[in-house]
Amino acid sequence: MTSLATHPVDDPDQLALIADGWTTIAKPFADRFREACQAEALAHNGWVDPNRVRARLRADDAGYNPRQLSALWSRSCGRGGFMVKTDRLVQIVGEGSRGNGNKSVPLRRWVGSPA
After folding, report:
1. Deepest in the core among 11, 72, 81, 94, taking most CB within 10 A?
2. Taking a C-beta distance cutoff of 8 angstroms, is the pair 69, 54 a contact?
């Protein structure tokens, strides 16, 4: 059994699947995430607003998973990612924000498409 924070995780493989955007199970959602980010960048001069990306994914995918989405944001802005975080903030709005309204999140800039 694996311990995470203050409680054990019964199925660490399940946790890995949520965090890993590129496993066989998670890849279709990761691909849709990337497509939604790229579409937003094309429509908004390179700017990617997490609110609009989330709205696109919720509208297109009945299997929307906010925990997986959070992991994908982190991975996409990390080393070798296709976006970078900026200092420009936007307030979290809309459905699916899981009680995060009134918080701010950085806008991202599309920087390219590593394969």
Report:
1. 72
2. yes
Question: How far, in Å, CA of 109 to CA of 86, rounded?
Answer: 7
Contact 101, 92 (CB under 8 A): yes
> In terms of Cα–Cα distance, which of 65, 59, 49, 57 is closest to 104?
49
Cα dihedral: 102, 93, 71, 27 (round 10): 170
pTM listed for this prediction = 0.73
Q: What's the chain's Rg over C-alpha atoms?
A: 15
Torsion of CA 87, 91, 94, 99, to 10 degrees: 110
109: Cα within 13 Å, side-chain hemisphere: 6
Q: pLDDT per residue over 18-51, tens digit each?
A: 555 455 566 788 888 999 999 999 999 999 999 9
Is pLDDT above 60 for 73?
Answer: yes
| Residue 26 contacts residue 68 (beta carbons within 8 Å) | yes
Identify any residues that bridge with 105 across adjacent strands, giving them in sequence order.
Answer: 90
